[in-house]
Amino acid sequence: MEEEFQTTRARFDETTGIGHLTLNRPEALNALSEQLRTDIVDGLRWLESHNEDADGIALRAVVVEGAEGNFCAGADITEFGDDSPGASSERYHYDFVMDFPVPIVAKIRGYCLGGGLETAMACDFRFADADARLGLPEVDLGLIPGAGGVQFISRLANPSVAKEIAMTGEHIGAERARELGIVNRVPDDLDATTAEFAETIASKPPLAIQALKDAANTAVQTGLREGCRYDRRLFEPLIETEDFQEGARAFTEDDYEPEFVGR
Ligand code: CO8
To answer: How far apart are CA 79 and CA 98, in angstroms?
Structure first.
């Protein structure tokens, strides 16, 4: 099933439970116009709407990429200064991606800069092509990364790395980004490895996956003791689920292939 928005394309694969979202403004290297930011949210909402008819959870993982060889060259510079409600909706798409209950993998080719890198870092995983170029070039516009770029890199790597990348504005290669912890993997076959990874996540009990995303996002915002208590609160209701019965059965019975449904 596919749906076209003005500047994104969404596709839902019912067999695997994997949603695909493509940023589709290749003429501007998929720069984040106000329209594109809105269409990212609308595309994800459309993918999530497949849960409505499902008995359980249909959408299990999402892969986000950019059309025609680039992930995204950042916020659309030509719209800066427009008297539009841009700032609030920009913040909205990053928050929406971060809070989206289903794990999102950013599949990165070509340029992934500024707000594009911030979008990728709001996702749960980043898989990149060896030739991808990542960076926060806002400093050369007299700006700073306005959507959490420094905060994300300070947590994924460390504050000194964040300062280096943001203050120089230099592009770094995918392998360097992986060494720093900004990118998860730089596989030889980006499409195959990303698909395989998304399928692995999609085959797991979806309520547990949702709780894990919540727990990991909470971990970077809270103290250890409070975070452990939070995990405990996420853990307890999972014992009541059908998926736990299914997983426990697969553990005790040889050759039993579990099927998780999200109940
Ligand atoms: N905005 C608008 N248009 C862009 C952007 C952009 N960010 N990037 C590229 N384009 C357009 C170009 O203008 C060009 O259009 P045209 O063909 O009509 O002239 C087309 O895309 C192709 O680009 P280039 O010809 O420049 O391609 P090159 O291969 O020569 O260069 C680069 C590629 C190096 C990526 C270059 O385009 C570039 O430097 N782009 C700008 C990168 C940048 O500075 N990004 C940061 C933007 S600021 C930001 O992201 C802040 C986010 C803050 C969020 C705040 C939330 C509250």
So the answer is: 24
Strand pairing class (104-108; 2-4):
unpaired
Query: Does ligand 1 have an atom closer than 6 angstroms to the CB of 74?
Result: yes
pLDDT digits (tens, 9 = 90+) for 161-170: 999 999 999 9
Name the residue with tokens 């019975």: 253
Protein fold of 2-202? 2-enoyl-CoA Hydratase; Chain A, domain 1 (3.90.226)
pTM: 0.95
Q: Which amino acid is at 16?
A: T
Active site residue 118: yes
Query: ∠59-21-119 over CA atoms, to 5°?
Result: 105
Query: What letters, b where the CB count within 10 A reaches 16 and e where it falls short, cover 144-155?
Result: ebbbbbbebbbb
197-244 pLDDT, tens per residue? Answer: 999 999 999 999 999 999 999 999 999 999 999 999 999 999 999 999
CA of 78 to the centre of ligand 1 (A): 9
CATH topology of domain 206-252: Lyase 2-enoyl-coa Hydratase; Chain  A, domain 2 (1.10.12)
